[in-house]
Known about the structure:
Blueprint: H1 7-18, E1 25-27, H2 30-39, E2 45-47, H3 53-57, E3 65-68, H4 73-76, H5 78-87, E4 90-93, H6 98-115, E5 118-120, H7 128-141, H8 165-174, E6 179-183, E7 186-190, E8 196-201, E9 204-209, H9 212-218
Parallel strand pairs: 1-2, 3-4, 4-5
Antiparallel strand pairs: 6-7, 8-9
The structure holds NADP nicotinamide-adenine-dinucleotide phosphate.
Amino acid sequence: MFGATGYTGARTAEAMVRRGVRPVLAGRDPGRLAALAQRLGGLETALADVTDRASVAALVGRGDVLVSTVGPFTELGAPAVAAAADAGAVYLDSTGEPPFIHTVYERWGPVAERSGAALLTAFGNDYVPGVLAGALALRAAGEGADRVDVGYFITGLGTGQPFSRGTLRSLAGIATQPLYAWRDGALRAEPAGTRMRTFDVAGRPADGLNQGLFAAQEAFLVSVENRY
Ligand SMILES: NC(=O)c1ccc[n+]([C@@H]2O[C@H](COP(=O)([O-])OP(=O)(O)OC[C@H]3O[C@@H](n4cnc5c(N)ncnc54)[C@H](OP(=O)(O)O)[C@@H]3O)[C@@H](O)[C@H]2O)c1
């Protein structure tokens, strides 16, 4: 569990332990790693810093599972996915950054095909629930369906912080970067905000742009309950 000392990493490690998994907690701060390891029942720890790629590579071997929440991913994510792809490991990350996701597919996908690694990028709140909900909606709709729109909305503003510190940093990094979309049989880059959909959120219309997280900001006025 690389990034274990961060907000998302610590919660992911806690969730693993609740399910009976005993992850190795990896990060760059031995003191905070040790404290977390003790709190979670005496887990193993490993030191790794993305500025020292060998230390990240040393975390994984063939068949290991590497979960990374070290972000912003466009800035800090490459060493972890590279280590997993090279080693033939299973890799999951919490990114929501389109340029990084694009790099995982284009740069590291072919490496993973050769090594036998499995790369599951963007395995967080965006985009797993939307993909699953979309798949279930299409299955329920049957043959007649020709499109499914998935919108992400943050509700209940005022009852908690809508984004973690790391997510805010990641958002700042991708604000001017292109998105990628499958259009007319090809993967194409397109600017955020070029497409718009209106969703029904708890009976009220809410606009979303073609950039998941910014679409959520559009919906700040829609306050239902805090689900984030
Ligand atoms: N897709 C989603 O739904 C979703 C949800 C939540 C978060 N995220 C993403 O997940 C990422 C983490 O968010 P967060 O809120 O957990 O951020 P955070 O609390 O700032 O955690 C970032 C982690 O990266 C580590 N790190 C930073 N520089 C490093 C380096 N040079 N070497 C090794 N580790 C380093 C930090 O270690 P230290 O503790 O030592 O500083 C920390 O553990 C962000 O990119 C965020 O956008 C996505």
